[in-house]
Amino acid sequence: MQIRKVKLTNFRNYQQLEWEPHPQLNFLFGLNGQGKTNLLEAVYVGAFSRSYRGNDQELLQWQKPWFRIAVEGEKKSGPFLVELAYGQKRKLYKVNGLVKKKASDFIGNYNVVLFAPEHLALVKGQPAERRRFLDAELAQTNRLYLLTLQKYVNLLKQKNYLLKEAKKGHYFDQDLLEVLNQQLAEMGSVIIYLRLEAIKKLNPLARLIQRRLSQGREELEIKYITTIELSGMSQKEIKQALWQGLISKREDEKRRGQSLIGPHRDDLEIKINGFSVRHFGSQGQQRTSALALKLAELEYIKGEIGEYPLLLLDDVFSELDRERRAILVETISGRIQTIITTTSIKDLPPALLKQGGSWRIEGGNMHVSAPGQ
Ligand SMILES: Nc1ncnc2c1ncn2[C@@H]1O[C@H](COP(=O)(O)OP(=O)(O)OP(=O)(O)O)[C@@H](O)[C@H]1O
Questions:
Q1: Mean pLDDT value across residues 91-102
Q2: Is 32 marked as binding a ligand?
Q3: What is the pLDDT of residue 351?
Q4: pLDDT at site 372
Q5: Do 170 and 62 share a domain, yes or no?
Q6: Please, which pLDDT band fits residue 370 given cuts at 50, 70 and 90?
Q7: What is the Cα–Cα distance from 199 to 83, expressed in whole angstroms?
Q8: Which of 46, 90, 115, 230 has the fewest CB atoms nearer than 10 Å to its CB?
Q9: Alpha-carbon distance 310 to 76, whole Å?
Q10: How far is the CA of 122 from the centre of ligand 1 (A)?
Q11: What is the dihedral of CA 348, 310, 326, 295, to 10 degrees?
């Protein structure tokens, strides 16, 4: 899939912008704080309905009452136009001119994989980052997952409220807690089951890429780490196990005022040649495996929806060494429309720059640049 036009009004430091990206590589370069990431972020918001680095209000240009993003493009099923407007704490979604009431009808109309500096720490960072990694690829390719996750998060909020009341010694509705736990076991089991299925597909993809990145020296393995034992279980069995787990932790949860069990607590373990990269991997191995996971995500989405998503590389291109960069370029060349932000394109090979377009970003404006500038 490709995006052909991006229009922004009052989005961060862009008052008005109309941009026609190159079908392959797009280099956005310029000094710090000029709006390179803001533009990439707008493309992300068009796919996910919200940002990965700020709330809706922060996206609004200072002192402006509303912003609008419109992204036009083409996928296998035909052309698309997605529009998102935000003002007075409300969002309006349109897809191909039709108003959509829910974010879930808007998300995933085009697909993106984001690789930002924080993802270099994907393997070493907090479990929440690894869960986000899984959620992002599943939510945009599987509607059941997206809807179930939204319900799960809402139920969890209600349960946490009850548990806090219980911890404070206030009156709380024990029956409601049971009902919530039953629903959480139902939704949670769907989430865990779909995550396990996704990991089955991701594993061979990531293994192959890691082999290439390490010249055959390293075997990568992704393992789902969960609060309950569930190897080889069906979704029904997972639900039963989760329900049992919730019962056994009930008193503990009330004492601590928080939900201790379920997919919101799970994690991924990344291993190379059998050892945990998080605990024992070198910095280079941690970065390589993060790159392998991201490249595997591209292939996973291709496998699920039949075409490659867009790739958004925020400030990571210049962070990669020459070999890893070469493999990345080889992976995306001619297949994956990519937007790359970088402070300078001076050191990039002219042959690479010729595969795409370059724009200098300055104070929320863009200027077309000749290669090598
Ligand atoms: N809501 C907003 N309204 C207006 N301007 C904003 C808003 N949010 C951020 N900015 C401005 O956008 C600029 C930051 O843009 P961005 O994050 O895209 O930087 P960048 O060009 O990617 O820089 P770097 O190379 O440092 O990552 C800052 O100058 C900031 O003042």
A1: 96
A2: yes
A3: 87
A4: 44
A5: no
A6: low
A7: 32
A8: 90
A9: 14
A10: 24
A11: 150
Residue 116 falls inside a structural domain: no
Q: Of 266, 284, 307, which residue sits at a domain end?
A: 307
Residues 276 and 348 in one domain: no
Whether the complex's predicted ipTM surpasses the cut of 0.85: yes
Q: Which residue carries 């922060």 as its tokens?
A: 58
High-pLDDT (> 90) share of the chain, % = 80
Give 98's strand partners.
Answer: 95
**Of the residues 289, 307, 325, the one at which a domain ends:** 307
pLDDT tens digits along 189-218? 999 999 999 999 999 999 999 999 999 999
- 13 Cα–ligand 1 center, Å: 6
Q: Note every long-range contact of 73-79, with CB atoms under 8 Å and residues 24 or more positions apart, other chains counting.
A: 73/1, 73/2, 73/3, 73/4, 73/5, 73/110, 74/1, 74/2, 74/4, 75/1, 75/2, 75/110, 75/307, 76/1, 76/306, 76/307
Q: DSSP 3-state assignment of 259?
A: coil
List pLDDT tens digits, range 38-79: 999 999 999 999 999 999 999 999 999 999 999 999 999 999
> Atom 15 in ligand 1: which residue has the minimum CA distance?
35
Is residue 117 one of the residues assigned to a domain? no
3-state secondary structure 189-206: HHHHHHHHHHHHHHHHHH
As given in the structure block, the two tokens for residue 180 are: 């919530």
150 is in an annotated binding site: no
Is 35 one of the annotated binding-site residues?
A: yes
Q: Find out whether 110 and 77 touch, Cβ atoms under 8 Å.
A: no
Domain count, the chain: 2
Rounded Cα distance between 42 and 55, Å, is 13
Closest ligand 1 atom number to CA of residue 41: 18
Using CB distances shorter than 6 Å, the residues near ligand 1 are 12-13, 30, 32-38, 58, 60-62, 315, 341, 343, 361
